[in-house]
Structure to design on (726 residues):
């Protein structure tokens, strides 16, 4: 812990220097570990490697996710950004031959500690998926499921309250309040995705992981979700995987660029999009590949 | 063959062949394909219809029973030898003789011993039982004359239903010309009546066709199937869930899986032998009891339900599991709250197929002694019993003409039982069915 803090300190200085100085463009340089601004990191990753059987999918990822900000993970298909995201709430545990090495900390707790209860971890780190996947139950039950299994409400009134606040926060209350008993699968795609977001925030997570939440939606629904992400930032730390660089630029404060399983570069979104330090980042955001 | 042969010559542009003949050939092929399908369905429907028509035409008459309406004088000396009018005395009465007497009164001309016997053949040997039951219920009837519809014998029943060909030579007929004459007289005087055959559904087996019913076999089948399904459904669903969701994928689970698949193909007689050796021989369970039949049949249905359940669990989309994991559900909660309910229609399909197979099973239950001639209706799963398919087999084996219609009627009852059971399962399946 002390070592990590020292390292962060070191690179923080280095980072500040970089912003002022010329763009660093040595592709062989390992991505810098840096908390360039002074905010507290909610999740820190050190030397995270992921293997699917014998195949390595992620190589030594070091990344700090700042609290109450939106961090976007971008990169071409198959670059490992979704794999990394799924490490953060140990969703990869479910996959049979997947192995994760390295340290990932939530606050100062190692989430891969064998003593840690993975169910409680997933309650603290919610997730929204690429394809809207409401349970084939009523809208109400979709939201109430998480609070129920975690014993968050003691009676029906409390549960109703959780359902209502979650739907309100997800901006779905006005559309759904009259049809709470109807199946969640009967909503439109955009509404379903907001339902999934409401379901995620119903268990009051600290971090919300979003895996390309808008890729199955039309532009109007996408705009609503993006607006929502911006509002949610006040209360939650959000990490979003996206294929759309415009989306990353619009919603995120931090951006990390992955390429071939390596975290190439990360920093303030503005800096990544205006002054990338790495050739590969520049190549990707200017559309030369990917 | 080298690569060069596969590569089109450079410069030559290949275009799709849009010629008329190709299109015509494609249309023809599609029409042919559709025709094959229609032919296959037509054949299946024809065979099914043929089967249904044959069975119904042969068997529908078994649901009616011919009775002879007689004015029976209940002679006190015959039915109440101790003259006490108490049930203990009344139950010993010779009611058959009373009924015979009243039939003979209609034919005063019959007096020779042989003719009397021929006339007595009109009555079922259970004809007196109807009168006995009446008298036991109401002892005041003793000494009075009451009109009773008594059971006719199977030969008269067949004659009444037109199943006896009067043109056949007398020697080849079970009913002689003299008897036909008496029958026609009875019929003309309105003594021959036909009523719905409730006895067919309430009585057990009998050597006399007019007294034989499916009640015993129906009850035996019900008890056996219930035992089988109560045992096999939870065990196989639990096994399937464990194997599919929790078990590590290794050599041992592979071997278990292969063995379960093989088990589904084992001939039922082998299960019967297993039941005979282990359940009857080693554990000493009662022979021919629905308990043992149910145990054997549950072994038979296990692999079917396990395979169907595993397929249904596999078919649940991973997005639902991920969603549940995502809100912090534990593995067991994911399976019990989300995966299993969605897989339930598939589980029910497996259960229907398994039960239907068990329902029609005869070889396995033959081996454990459910083939005996059982007159009593089983009341518990340890009573000796028989099942519908075996009952049908036993009747089909009997020489009396009247058993032919009972065999067909038994088949109808079994099919209706099967359809009802399947309909019930379909209703349950509908209840569980959800879209996602």
């Amino acid at each position: 812990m002390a070592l990590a803090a020292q390292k962060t300190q070191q690179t923080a200085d280095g980072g500040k220097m970089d912003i002022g100085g010329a763009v660093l463009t040595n592709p062989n340089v390992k991505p810098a570990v840096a908390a360039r601004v002074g905010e507290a990191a909610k999740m820190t990753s050190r030397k995270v490697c992921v293997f699917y059987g014998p195949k390595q999918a992620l190589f030594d990822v070091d990344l700090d996710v700042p609290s109450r900000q939106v961090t976007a993970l971008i990169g071409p298909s198959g670059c490992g950004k979704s794999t990394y995201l799924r490490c953060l709430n140990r969703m990869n545990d479910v996959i049979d031959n997947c192995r994760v090495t390295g340290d990932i900390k939530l606050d100062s707790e190692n989430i891969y500690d064998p003593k840690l209860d993975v169910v409680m971890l997933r309650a603290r780190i919610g997730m929204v998926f690429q394809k809207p996947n409401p349970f084939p139950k009523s809208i109400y039950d979709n939201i109430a499921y998480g609070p129920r299994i975690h014993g968050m409400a003691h009676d029906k009134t409390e549960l109703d309250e959780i359902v209502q606040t979650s739907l309100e926060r997800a901006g779905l209350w006005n559309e759904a309040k009259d049809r709470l008993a109807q199946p969640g699968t009967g909503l439109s795609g955009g509404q379903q995705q907001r339902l999934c977001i409401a379901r995620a925030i119903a268990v009051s997570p600290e971090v919300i992981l979003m895996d390309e939440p808008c890729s199955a939606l039309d532009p109007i629904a996408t705009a609503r979700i993006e607006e929502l992400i911006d509002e949610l930032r006040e209360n939650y730390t959000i990490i979003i995987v996206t294929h759309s660089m415009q989306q990353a630029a619009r919603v995120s404060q931090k951006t990390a660029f992955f390429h071939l399983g390596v975290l190439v570069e990360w920093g303030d979104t503005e800096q990544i999009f205006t002054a990338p330090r790495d050739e590969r980042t520049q190549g990707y955001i200017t559309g030369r590949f990917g | 063959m080298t690569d060069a042969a596969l590569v089109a010559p450079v410069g030559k542009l290949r275009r799709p062949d849009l010629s008329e003949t190709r299109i015509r050939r494609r249309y023809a092929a599609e029409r042919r394909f559709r025709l094959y399908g229609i032919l296959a369905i037509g054949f299946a429907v024809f065979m099914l219809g043929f089967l249904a028509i044959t069975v119904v035409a042969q068997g529908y008459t078994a649901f009616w029973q011919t009775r002879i309406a007689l004015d029976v004088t209940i002679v006190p000396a015959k039915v109440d030898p101790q003259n006490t009018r108490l049930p203990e005395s009344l139950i010993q009465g010779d009611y058959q003789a009373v009924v015979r007497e009243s039939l003979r009164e209609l034919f005063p001309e019959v007096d020779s011993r042989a003719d009397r016997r021929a006339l007595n053949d009109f009555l079922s040997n259970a004809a007196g039982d109807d009168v006995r039951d009446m008298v036991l219920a109401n002892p005041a009837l003793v000494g009075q004359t009451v009109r009773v519809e008594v059971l006719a014998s199977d030969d008269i029943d067949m004659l009444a239903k037109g199943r006896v060909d009067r043109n056949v030579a007398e020697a080849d007929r079970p009913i002689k010309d003299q008897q036909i004459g008496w029958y026609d007289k009875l019929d003309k005087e309105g003594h021959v009546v036909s009523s719905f055959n409730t006895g067919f559904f309430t009585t057990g087996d009998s050597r006399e066709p007019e007294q034989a019913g499916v009640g015993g076999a129906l009850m035996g089948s019900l008890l056996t199937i219930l035992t089988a399904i109560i045992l096999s459904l939870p065990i196989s669903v639990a096994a399937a869930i464990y194997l599919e969701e929790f078990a590590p994928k290794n050599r041992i689970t592979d071997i278990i899986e292969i063995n379960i698949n093989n088990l589904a193909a084992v001939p039922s007689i082998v299960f019967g032998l297993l039941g005979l050796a282990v359940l009857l021989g080693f554990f000493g369970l009662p022979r021919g009891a629905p308990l043992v039949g149910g145990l054997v049949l549950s072994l038979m249905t296990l692999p079917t339900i396990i395979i169907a359940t595993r397929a249904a669990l596999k078919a649940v989309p991973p997005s639902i599991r991920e969603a549940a994991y995502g809100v912090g559900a534990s593995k067991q909660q994911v399976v019990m709250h989300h995966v299993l309910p969605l897989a339930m229609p598939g589980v029910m399909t497996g259960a229907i197929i398994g039960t239907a197979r068990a329902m029609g099973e005869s070889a396995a239950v033959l081996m454990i002694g459910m083939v005996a001639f059982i007159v009593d209706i089983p009341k518990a799963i340890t009573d000796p019993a028989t099942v519908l398919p075996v009952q049908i087999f036993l009747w089909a084996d009997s020489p009396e003409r009247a058993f032919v219609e009972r065999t067909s009627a038994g088949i109808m009852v079994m099919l209706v039982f099967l359809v009802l059971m399947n309909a019930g399962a379909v209703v349950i399946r509908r209840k569980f069915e959800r879209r996602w």
Remarks:
- The two ends of chain A are 37 Å apart (CA to CA).
- Residues 1-38 of chain A have pLDDT under 50 and may be disordered.
- Chain A touches chain B at residues 89, 91, 94, 96, 119-123, 126-129, 131, 133-137, 145-146, 149-150, 183, 185, 196, 199-200, 202-203 (CB under 8 Å).
- Strands of chain A lie at 41-52, 55-66, 70-74, 98-106, 109-110, 125-128, 207-211, 237-241, 254-259, 262-268.
